[in-house]
UniProtKB/TrEMBL annotation:
<dbReference type="GO" id="GO:0005525">
    <property type="term" value="F:GTP binding"/>
</dbReference>
<dbReference type="Pfam" id="PF21516">
    <property type="entry name" value="YqeH-like_C"/>
</dbReference>
<protein>
    <submittedName>
        <fullName>Ribosome biogenesis GTPase YqeH</fullName>
    </submittedName>
</protein>
<dbReference type="InterPro" id="IPR050896">
    <property type="entry name" value="Mito_lipid_metab_GTPase"/>
</dbReference>
<dbReference type="InterPro" id="IPR027417">
    <property type="entry name" value="P-loop_NTPase"/>
</dbReference>
<dbReference type="Pfam" id="PF01926">
    <property type="entry name" value="MMR_HSR1"/>
</dbReference>
<dbReference type="InterPro" id="IPR048422">
    <property type="entry name" value="NOA1/YqeH-like_C"/>
</dbReference>
<dbReference type="InterPro" id="IPR019988">
    <property type="entry name" value="GTP-bd_ribosome_bgen_YqeH"/>
</dbReference>
<dbReference type="InterPro" id="IPR006073">
    <property type="entry name" value="GTP-bd"/>
</dbReference>
<feature type="domain" description="CP-type G">
    <location>
        <begin position="66"/>
        <end position="229"/>
    </location>
</feature>
<dbReference type="InterPro" id="IPR030378">
    <property type="entry name" value="G_CP_dom"/>
</dbReference>
Amino acid sequence: MKDPLEGQSVKKCSGCGIELQALNPDLPGYIPEKSLDREPVICQRCFRIKNYNEASSVTVDQDEFLRLLSQIGGKNALVIHIVDLFDFEGSLISGLQRFVGNNPVILAVNKIDLLPKVSNWNKIINWVQKQCKEQGLKTEEIILCSAKKNQGFDRLLEAVTDYRGDRDVYVVGATNVGKSTLINRLIRDYSDLEQELTVSRYPGTTLDMVSIPLDDGRHIIDTPGIMYPWRYSELVNRKDLGAIMPENPLKPMVYQLNEGQTLFFGGMARFDFIQGARQSFTCFLSSRLNIHRTKLEKADALYQEHAGVMLAPPDSDNLGQLPEWTRHEIRVPKGAKLDLFISGLGWIKVNSDQGALTAIHAPKGVKVLSRPSLI
């Protein structure tokens, strides 16, 4: 498909300075073709900030994102790193510390509304702290929040005030973690945007970031969301994304399994209990994803016959869009309390301390790992 701007003299957004394009609304610089004759000419993201005090999500690939991150270390900045608690290991930016240098980091852990209401929040914070330590990420504060339920945002705003000083605020995160909601709340609380943006171009903006002026002369810098290929949410189409991403609190599903039994999670992934004493496993997945139990010896044949129909989503029309499955064998030691995690899909909690030999089958490239139990 040809870009309507192709062959024209290069047009740049008068708001953020990025080169405009009319092909892909998910990439920086997008402008609808019908808006090209407006004056001033601004991209869709700047238009939304100016007219609605609202930022929309823009994504870039991993290499481009790392290039943008590398600029932060040389700035005087407060960094807000927002992650998705449902997909913590999949959305955490690995190696963030080496990019931000000595700049302070606030870790905003979003989507806490998905956890059961009986969750012990102090234990959740301790769990997050241990995970950050393993990743070498130093944080000034960890704040549990829910963009959807507007929980924890008052404390997050207080933390920004506590740690910002005369710094600019950089907001970083992967796609689908709630970054735009956070930006929008910061805009409403810290900036008189209507007055600022109707009289001037956004100051200090680089090509793939939007710099939003604050009342004290500093800025909120909205960085594009990074697309991590190991997250299930980056592989599926929009229809199936709605099936695997939970919207309501997770309802843990407990299964008592004998060795030699298998659980299919729709047609998205498969869990094998290969060896061990009879024990229970708790599945934390979207309630819209059906779980089907069968014998391990019949699992391959069942998938061949029923993938895309009984074992769905994805349906038969979209099966070919996903990579072939890879088998990940995971041995759970005796005494260990572990989750078996599938990035973007959820996790299986091993409830017994008797030990087990297990395997997870998921599309090639999807991050699969064991971790200390979150709950």
